[in-house]
Amino acid sequence: MKLSSIDYYLDWPVAIKSKNLREFIIANLEKKGDLIRWSIVDIQNSFDSLGTKKLKIKAVIVN
Known about the structure:
This protein is mainly beta. 14% of the residues lie in helices and 51% in strands. The protein is elongated, with a radius of gyration of 12 Å.
């Protein structure tokens, strides 16, 4: 078992409401491996016209 700490950048589309954000993040992180823990460390507004936000997520996964 190998634990890895990763910084993951994810676009948060306007269509994803804040109450569904947790499931959206977990679904994307589980593509990298088995998820142990995660946290949002930064949220930035995007400069595009779609209104998306950029999330910076710190995660620990098992590969």
